């Protein structure tokens, strides 16, 4: 398809932003092409294309959204196609926006749930973008709390004259008689009042899916979780509720959305996971829960560590620390410092990594049984801290220390955390390999490979593959051949 004929009016908005960003025409075209490649688009724009845009020609398809994203990354503030004097289009980066209002946040996240629930394969292929972390984390850190989240309470009341509050819930009989009335009572629709029982149900569902994720991997029930969000959480968010109930509702929705992101991350859908995390962060702000917002940020930091973006991982952990102030529970402090340490470990920054680990250890030691610990932080115990130590020392090639901490974590870790135990076993195998203990390393890794074959977790498979890459210098040794035979037998 050819682009529309050039308009007569020059695009002064685009020209001003090009000047502000310091782009040349060729430089802007190149960045748009590169961003397109992240989405599987072969665009091939050049400086002549940009000249045409400046003269008033409108680019077709999703290109206006791509151009807007290029400027968003460069200038550090969210820009839309309209801000650039371009026609609006469906944003290819939908989901990375940090909504201005709770209502907009519901619109964005529910759209994400619906698309994902529909099993759109292309949604799971969207690339992770480190630059997409900047604006949401900044907006969370400096953003003002939402003054109001309550919704539609007046619509739920019956006026004095006795007429129904909303035509959607009229008592006029529907075709089908009693069966239709029973269906309307059992299926939630937009506008219904949200109760404490509804929120308790969301929390219970979260615990169920979290346990499945820990034991069997994110791919086991991820799609069911997304459908639950679409069919149950969205109608609640579009229901009627007061301030206190609304805050609790947004908190529960944030928790489930973060979990949807976590399970997406576990199956290797990193761009999709990133979008879930950004939206969970915005829902946490609507809930007025700064601690949970920090938890979402360190979840994003963990994903950055896994993908090798150590600098972004450290920055996210530090934003989380700054955002919660000086008095979070000691367990939360320990978690925040441990995640920062992981980022330093990926970067090979020994001193900074060690300092963060020491702060994490001291914070956990100061925790007391009576502390008010958020439900999401209760997993962070001595076993988890030892696991963080083991990963960091492995990354810093301090193999003897890595062995010590990984073994301690495996001794302390509960069986229900099967995937975490698998990761730790691979860390231990890699550390044993680093110490030259080839037989033991292969034995440990073979156990981990067997466990990975029973999970639906791309991360579990990738941990094993990382170990196998470390085996390459020893590929002709008898223990390595035995290891490969065992893995091959797993199919």
Structure notes:
With 491 residues, the protein is mostly helical. It folds into 4 domains: 12-84; 95-156 and 189-288, no CATH class; 290-380; 412-491. Helix content is 64%, strand content 0%. The model is unreliable at 155-185 (pLDDT under 50).
- What would you call the shape? globular
Q: Give me the Rg, rounded.
A: 25 Å
Question: Strand fraction band?
Answer: under 5%
What is the total tally of β strands?
0
Oligomerization state? single chain
What is the helix tally? 22
Region (Disordered): 152-196
Protein name: Regulatory protein
Organism: Streptomyces glomeratus
SSE blueprint and pairings:
Elements lengths: L11 H10 L3 H14 L8 H9 L7 H13 L26 H16 L16 H9 L10 H4 L21 H9 L9 H21 L5 H16 L5 H24 L3 H18 L2 H17 L3 H15 L5 H18 L2 H16 L16 H14 L3 H14 L5 H17 L3 H15 L5 H13 L7 H12 L2
Helix pairs in contact: 2-3, 2-4, 5-10, 5-12, 6-14, 9-10, 9-11, 10-11, 11-12, 11-13, 12-13, 13-14, 13-15, 14-15, 15-16, 15-17, 16-17, 17-18, 17-19, 18-19, 19-20, 19-21, 20-21, 20-22
Question: What is this structure, in a nutshell?
Answer:
Helices cover 64% and strands 0% of the residues. It is mainly α and 491 residues long.
């Amino acid at each position: 398809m050819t682009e529309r004929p050039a308009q007569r009016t020059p695009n002064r908005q685009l020209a001003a932003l090009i000047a502000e960003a310091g782009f040349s025409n060729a430089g802007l075209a190149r960045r748009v092409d590169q961003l397109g490649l992240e989405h599987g688009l072969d665009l091939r724009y050049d400086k002549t294309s940009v000249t045409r845009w400046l003269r008033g020609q409108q680019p077709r398809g999703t290109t206006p959204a791509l151009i807007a994203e290029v400027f968003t990354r460069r200038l550090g503030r969210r820009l839309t196609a309209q801000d650039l004097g371009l026609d609006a289009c469906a944003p290819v980066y939908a989901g990375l926006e940090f909504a201005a209002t709770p209502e907009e946040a519901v619109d964005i996240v529910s759209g994400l749930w619906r698309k994902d629930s529909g099993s759109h394969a292309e949604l799971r292929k969207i690339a992770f973008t480190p630059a997409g972390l900047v604006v949401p984390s900044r907006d969370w850190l400096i953003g003002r709390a939402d003054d109001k989240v309550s919704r539609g309470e007046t619509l739920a009341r019956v006026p004095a004259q006795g007429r129904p509050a909303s035509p959607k819930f009229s008592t006029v009989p529907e075709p089908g008689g009693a069966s239709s009335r029973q269906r309307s009572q059992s299926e939630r629709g937009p506008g219904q009042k949200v109760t404490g029982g509804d929120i308790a149900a969301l929390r219970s569902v979260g615990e169920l899916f979290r346990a499945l994720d820990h034991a069997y991997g994110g791919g086991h029930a991820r799609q069911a979780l997304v459908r639950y969000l679409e069919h149950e959480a969205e109608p609640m968010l579009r229901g009627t509720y007061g301030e206190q109930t609304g805050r609790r509702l947004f908190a529960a929705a944030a928790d489930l959305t973060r979990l949807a992101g976590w399970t997406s991350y576990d199956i290797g859908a990193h761009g999709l996971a990133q979008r879930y995390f950004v939206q969970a962060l915005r829902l946490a702000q609507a809930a007025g829960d700064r601690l949970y917002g920090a938890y979402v940020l360190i979840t994003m930091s963990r994903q950055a560590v896994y993908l090798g973006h150590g600098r972004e991982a450290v920055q996210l952990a530090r934003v989380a620390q700054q955002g919660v102030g000086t008095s979070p529970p000691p367990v939360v402090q320990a978690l925040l410092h441990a995640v920062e340490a992981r980022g330093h470990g990926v970067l090979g920054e020994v001193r900074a990594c060690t300092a963060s680990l020491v702060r994490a250890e001291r914070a956990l030691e100061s925790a007391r049984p009576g502390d008010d610990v958020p439900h999401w932080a209760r997993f962070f115990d001595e076993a988890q801290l030892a696991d963080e130590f083991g990963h960091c020392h492995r990354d810093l090639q301090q193999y003897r220390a890595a062995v010590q901490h990984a073994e301690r974590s495996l001794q302390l870790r509960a069986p229900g955390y099967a995937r975490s135990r698998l990761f730790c076993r691979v860390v231990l195998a890699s550390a044993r390999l680093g110490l030259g203990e080839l037989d033991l390393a292969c034995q440990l890794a073979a156990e981990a490979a067997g466990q990975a074959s029973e999970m639906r977790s791309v991360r579990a498979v990738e941990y094993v593959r990382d170990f196998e890459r470390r085996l390459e210098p020893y590929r002709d040794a008898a223990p390595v051949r035995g290891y490969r035979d065992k893995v091959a037998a797993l199919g």
